[in-house]
Amino acid sequence: MGYKLETIDRRCFLRGSGVALALPVFGSLAGEVAHGAPSKPNPKRLACFYFPDGVPMPLPEDPAHQDWSWFPHGGGEQFTFTKCMEPLESIKSELTVLSGFSHPKSRNVHGHNNADQFLTAGATGGGDKEYENTISLDQEYARHVGDQTRFASLVMSTDGGTGTARGTHTISFDRHGRPIPAEHRPKRIFDQLFVKSDNDSARRLELSRSALDEMLEDARRLRRSLSTADRRVLDEYLDSVRQAEVKVEKAKRWLGAPLPSVDRDQLNLELTTDEPREYLQTMFELIYLAFKTDSTRVATYQIGRENGVGRSDHLARAVGFNLAHQLSHETKNPDGWKNFGTYCRFLNEEYGRFIGKLKATPEPGGTGSLLDNTLLLFGSASSAFHLSRNYPLILAGGKNLGFRHGRYVNHAGTNFQGGPWLGDREPWQDEAKGDDLPLSNLYLTMLQRLGVPADSFADSTGVVEDV
What we know:
This protein is α/β, with parallel strands linked by helices. The chain has helices at 31-34, 65-68, 137-145, 186-194, 201-223, 228-254, 276-292, 324-329, 336-360, 439-449; strands at residues 13-16, 19-22, 45-50, 73-75, 78-80, 95-99, 101-102, 154-157, 163-164, 167-168, 298-302, 374-379, 393-397, 407-410, 437-438.
């Protein structure tokens, strides 16, 4: 059979017994590429992960600093992980730890208000301050690549839905700053990605299109009788309708395309946070499968919501504790830093497992591994107790996008704030010891290397050269 490598589509699978395996790059088919024939470009993917409640930050004079400080010791290529980060040792060359970044508009805000602005840099404020949000990093990228896959993006969280202002259950926000509901049920996510719709789909799409047409016509007539302020409200509403229209048209294009087939026998899709480790593994696995089958190139997963509210707080039961948020409050107790660090180590174990799987999987029909073509951001919008500065961040993957790894890039220097909460002032209420860089600078850098022709993102002031 005279296959040429450039004719093998990314969605080409070896099928049998309900299992589909992505075809590897066959050496016998690579001759054309070796002789200069054009090949398909690698897909460029982005996934962002958020964990709440900050990280262990014992002060240097505290005996726990050596073992349980989240940030590594040393710097540059000469750094060592603490026990918090040891599970990432085997993939150290695939990631960069960052310190000294935060969003300027939130630096003096209580940390529990911050998940809303993690990917947006929005002025979501705190207390009685006005809430205003903007588009999130993932959705900015989805605007550029979302039409290339069946799903523009995959939005997930452990708690599901949207939550509340400053108590979000999603880290994805549309271009008007509105929260995009996240899905938390593994079976619903799997079915959406891999289970064929019923035969009524085409008819329902046509009805949806007809209803949208009628709605737009009615709105145009109504607009002529409205005030200027009301017209702005209507225009925002019509923009939502147009987005729905785009989704209907996209759904029609994909209606006849076969869904990728994957082996579900290895997945327990009925899991809840009552089985926390398996639940977290399954959520990571679903993102892996979505990327491997090129069902989407953009994903977010909010591992937990802030302030210890919701089912995500139960994830600490994976390592023998009752509630995750409580651990961040008890660091002044005997073994407090160790307990909090043990929970963070658990999150790093499962995140590291996910990174390792991407690294071990060749890019279907492309070059390198899935990890080489996938940029991963993992972090929180708090570092020390409720402190909205010096976010703990890990950037991984994307070597084919120009990222260099195996380093600890410390822009905070020695200006670390931390220590346990003793019941009085909290670190976020103290004056900052140094000036963080705008996290949006990193986001702009990420967008540019993902191929987005952007000159700015949110409140960025430039790009980050040392990643």
